[in-house]
Amino acid sequence: MPVMPSGIPACPDPDRPHRLAAQLAGMIPGVATIRVGLSDPKETWPHPHVIVKDEAGQTMELSRIAARVAARWILRVWPEVDWTRPHTFDLADATLTRSDLLAARRGR
Questions:
Q1: Per-residue DSSP letters for 77-95?
Q2: Residue 34: its H or E element
Q3: Which residues of 55-72 are buried (b: 16+ CB within 10 A; e: fewer)?
Q4: Start-to-end Cα distance in the chain
Q5: What pLDDT, in 10s, does the model give residues 15-35?
Q6: Which of 86, 75, 87, 92 minimizes the C-alpha distance to 32?
Q7: Which of 96, 101, 87, 84 is nearest to 17 (CA)?
Q8: Global confidence as pTM
């Protein structure tokens, strides 16, 4: 488990990612993955940017508020992550992986 500079585990509750996955699945029916980063192409300052996909890998449209809430919840569960690089939260297994590493595994 990652540890913050204070020595406190970054996510002291090991069930928290699973609870987050359940909350997000309830809020966004049909969601499989959520990609979060701080490089919204429409903003000049670092701003949460979300791409939501279903099981088939199709992008799902979200309201601005739902996208912002999903991004903030994910950012808060993993505060130690370098959010200048996008990460993908897989709701099926409640794991967060750097998006470029996922793409490399898939052979993109």
A1: H-TTS-TTS-EEEETTTTE
A2: strand 31-37
A3: eeeeeeebeeeebebbbe
A4: 29
A5: 899 999 999 999 999 999 999
A6: 92
A7: 96
A8: 0.79
